[in-house]
Write a structure and sequence with these properties.
single chain, eight-stranded mixed β-sheet, globular, 253 residues, alpha/beta, Rossmann fold
């Protein structure tokens, strides 16, 4: 196990939901965490409670990515920030609602990955992108969400190719949560819509995923992926309450 104590880690979207769960787990291991998010008020609360550094800004701002990475020079970069996906059947989506996650998650992922390569981050550093089980199974009520999350998965593979070609020694990886979490804003938004579509209660729908997984559980999984040597070489890791961390590298990218 690698000791995360004192490790410089940047987490985007770390002021709420899954991102906050990740920050909590990393701080428990005494990592030096910088949280990047839009909401200055929430950032102030997180800074006071967890003693982290914070940067308020739009994660889709390339200059912000360049500045944060140049200033912090993190050993680990966790790209967790994500847009709330509007829920509607395909024929009711506008282009704006359909592409919302592309305009946020994929755009931000591209810019932060590009800046990590351009700087470059220190040799041996790792960049962790956040995908979704929708990248495997689809998500018919969330517009372009599933495709966007698949693109982030592909982006990790593409970036590893560039890192190898340039001899940078940076490893790009992706986490794939494989169940909806009802205690996050994003998860509850999706769960309510799918429960209604299936004609079941919210509780019954969520129970279908098996063992509950919370944002803090995800944080523990992420901390393990970053600290356990068993996860240094892989690229794609699924996480699920009743399965824990499992490799998805046997699935074609």
């Amino acid at each position: 196990m690698q000791d995360l104590s004192g490790a410089r880690i940047v987490v985007t979207g770390g002021s709420r939901g899954i991102g906050l769960g990740i920050v909590e787990a990393l701080r428990e291991r005494k990592a030096e965490v910088t949280v990047v998010a839009r909401d200055a008020g929430r950032l102030a609360e997180v800074a006071e409670r967890l003693q982290v550094s914070t940067v308020a800004g739009d994660v889709t701002d390339r200059e912000l990515a360049r500045r944060v990475l140049s200033d912090v020079k993190p050993q680990f970069l966790v790209l967790q920030a994500g847009a709330l996906s509007p829920m509607a059947p395909l024929h009711q989506h506008t282009w704006e609602s359909f592409s919302a996650v592309w305009e946020n998650d994929v755009k931000a992922g591209l810019f932060w990955v590009q800046e990590a390569i351009a700087l470059p981050l220190p040799r041996g550093s790792r960049v962790l992108l956040s995908s979704s089980g929708a990248a495997i199974a689809g998500s018919p009520l969330s517009g372009g969400y599933a495709g966007a999350k698949r693109m982030l998965w592909l982006m990790a593979h593409y970036a590893n190719g560039v890192s190898a070609e340039l001899g940078l020694g940076i490893k790009f990886q992706v986490i794939v949560p494989r169940q909806i979490m009802g205690d996050t804003e994003h998860g509850r938004n999706a769960a309510v819509a799918y429960a209604r579509k299936k004609g079941v209660s919210l509780e019954e729908f969520l129970a279908g995923f098996g063992k509950t997984m919370t944002p803090r559980d995800v944080g523990e999984y992420v901390a393990t992926i970053l600290s356990d040597e068993a996860y240094q070489a892989g690229t794609a890791f699924g996480i699920k309450g009743d399965l824990g961390i499992h490799s998805l590298d046997d699935r074609p990218a």
